[in-house]
Amino acid sequence: MEFRIEKTIGAILMLSLAAWGAEVRHQHLRKGAIGRFEIGENSISFKETGKKSKHSWEWKYEDIQQLTLSPTELRILSYDDGKWQFGRDREYVFDQLPKDFASQEYALLRTRLDQRLIAHLGDPDVKPLWQIGAKLLHRFGGSQGMLLVGEDQIVYRTDNGESHAWPYNDIENISTSGRFDLSVTTSERSGWSRGSVTDYHFQLKQALTEERYNDLWRRANRAHGLGVNVPATN
């Protein structure tokens, strides 16, 4: 019975994927152009209209290195060499997304792209086991929000466009240097060659208990099938 239910849910998800399409803008070196963006069962495609009609592509899911999704923008990192970029992989950028597109399509895209989907949004469906106020630190300044720790993911929710959602299997490491500090290392590709992982460093507004830290660390490691012996903290 459970297997039949899972197949039914999967079929509904794929039907929703195949049926979705909308007008978005493809960013050019100067401005951009409108076209139709479609999410299908096996691929994602874009067909640009107007003078740049040759700017049309289709990417099978296995040909996408990374898809970055935010409320205002979608980026597809391909395996193609970028022209005039010294072999750097080409990235396609789309903006002017339909309202609520990111939050509505997040779960569907996750089923097709797993950890290759980078979600720059706070998953509205997360049911936190606990939460804590935090500041996401940058080189200069940062943003303030709330860290929500759920059964299957960590969410950073803020009002300034820097929200994130990390399923535990997207997290490479969890670490701390003290009760008011937490670092999350993710599989998100960064750097010029996009060959590095990404570190998110949080200054916590309340003390992180040893019990909560240990539970968080174990969840991240279980998601990768690793051992659960928690390392000593400072």
Indicate the CATH class of the largest domain.
Answer: Mainly Beta
Mean pLDDT: 82
* Structural shape: elongated
Distance between the termini: 49 Å
Strand content: 35-45%
How many domains make up the 3D coordinates? 2
Overall description:
This protein is of the alpha+beta class. The protein has 2 domains: 2-118, Roll (PH-domain like); 130-222, Roll (PH-domain like), CATH 2.30.29. The chain contains 3 helices and 15 strands. The protein has helices spanning 2-19, 101-113, 210-222; strands at 21-27, 32-39, 43-48, 56-60, 64-69, 73-81, 89-95, 117-119, 130-137, 142-149, 153-157, 164-167, 171-175, 181-190, 196-204. The protein has an 8-stranded mixed sheet. A 7-stranded antiparallel sheet has the order 12-11-10-9-15-14-13. It is elongated, with a radius of gyration of 19 Å. The termini are far apart. Residues 1-19 have low confidence and may be disordered.
